């Protein structure tokens, strides 16, 4: 039984809807270590939790992410072939020693396209998360620090943004801006914004009521100094967890939008648009669907696994 | 128990109920209003003349332009136009698609059922798969638990359109068990619903498993075990109730996943429905339709989440206290 199970509804509602992604949503309640009175050690200390040991799954996930990161930053290291070089004579060739992942309908090397696609998928995802995290932190902290008449409309705005189905909201943005990588970043960033804003707002509430902030106020610290020096550094804790898991969601959303033709346009080797092109040849060339799909899925799986691990550590360290 | 206490109790209960219910309904209305406003702002933000935007790829004649200007009141100041727009929404008038030459409400109502059918079937698949996986493997320390956990993670991580493509490749092209596309009876519904339901199965399964495992460590589980009930009964009858509550919180999220995912999955399987309409509208910049779909999605979400909130009020009296 954790303490958070019994906490009053008012506090809970600040935290509960914090993250739209279910694994993160669990965070608040799933750790046994949330004792609010750290001064009193538990009578029978639990054996060292298994979660602090090294788990092979985590190692595999991190290794995979490292490979993907290399592919995104320096694709030339992993694949010598040109991702755009068409070779119609060898179109739709199955995997072979020369083309490990086979070739697509234009005879382009699928491996090379998958490798070069990592940059698009990860780049768009990371940029969207950066946008959402920065703007979300600013707005969330603003809401958390402001009087009610500022906080209330801002919180409502977060609620409304969070209440649209992700993909539909992104599509509304795209219908205004038109397709393209930059617009996908904007769309997904806006979709994810409320996750960050709500969590940061909740954190700000906690921090501003804390003893050290009250003492800083008593000492007569100027408000900007107080916010920048004392509040801001202490509300950013959950960001790495949110960003890691959010990155997975962003990559799924990016691939979905690209699949529908709203992301980077062909011939750019983005994973989603590769899948969109390959689906017409699904019957004859499974490899042109399987490999990009495998990389999207494994990337998201790894990000989520690592993110949840980070989350547990983070929650475990909470006072 | 006297009549007096009964009535007093009832009175108290009513007093505790009215405030939160009104507040939640009010919050729902605010969300709808902001959604309508956002859709309207989107319309204004689209580059180009609003008349051109509304016509999109439709027939462009001076008469039609004049008709659009009067219909949307485009010759009046913007706040006035916005007021007109809200009034028309209140009357259920969603505008007109000049591309498809039909009223938007008519288009939506004709295309909604295939999508609802798909979404409900997918939800059913997702819930059943998640329940079976979680109930059969939770709380057992063995490789099956790890495997089930990994399957859930994968199911939650695979984009629905990709799941659709893979299912097509295996079950339609290779095995030939299901039709490739279209909307002809239940057989054509199975694969799309599975593709869409996988994400729900994965996410819900993870939540259920965590909830079950936490519940199984609680004192009541020990008590129940000491009474000698079987492990299966403990999981299914006692722990499951505790695990279901956090899952119910996710209902709103599921609705979003289903609606958004349906659009992509319908595209993969070439099914008629809201997806086809939305996709056509977004690529063709058919703004009245895009706006209506957004409003529709917001309305569904608000309805479902308000119902969930009210259900919570019924379940947990502590939530009835006002903040």
UniProtKB/TrEMBL annotation, chain A:
Region Disordered: start-end pairs: 1-42
Subcellular location: Cell membrane
Principal place of residence: membrane
Domain of life: Bacteria
Record-linked InterPro entries: BP-dependent_transpt_permease, MetI-like, MetI-like_sf
Entry GO CC: plasma membrane
GO BP terms: transmembrane transport
Keyword Transmembrane tagged: yes
Keyword Acetylation: no
Residue ranges crossing the lipid bilayer per the database entry: 59-78, 120-145, 180-200, 239-264, 284-307
Pfam family, one: BPD_transp_1
Membrane topology, from the record: Multi-pass membrane protein
Extent of Basic and acidic residues compositional bias: 1-17
Alphabetic keyword roster: Cell membrane, Membrane, Transmembrane, Transmembrane helix, Transport
Domain ABC transmembrane type-1: 118-307
CDD domains with a match to the protein in the record: TM_PBP2 (cd06261)
Family membership noted in the UniProt record: Belongs to the binding-protein-dependent transport system permease family.
Protein name per its UniProtKB record: Peptide/nickel transport system permease protein
Automatic annotation (TrEMBL), chain B:
Keyword Translocase: no
GO molecular-function terms, A-Z: dipeptide transmembrane transporter activity
InterPro entries, per database record: BPD_transp_1_N (IPR045621), MetI-like (IPR000515), MetI-like_sf (IPR035906)
Chief site of localization: membrane
One annotated Gene Ontology cellular component of this protein: plasma membrane
Membrane-topology descriptor: Multi-pass membrane protein
Key words, A-Z: Cell membrane, Membrane, Transmembrane, Transmembrane helix, Transport
Domain of life: Bacteria
Subcellular location: Cell membrane
Record-annotated membrane-spanning stretches: 21-46, 118-139, 186-208, 243-269, 289-315
Domain ABC transmembrane type-1 residue range list: 112-312
Pfam families: BPD_transp_1, BPD_transp_1_N
Family: Belongs to the binding-protein-dependent transport system permease family.
Protein name as catalogued: Peptide/nickel transport system permease protein
Biological source species: Streptosporangium saharense
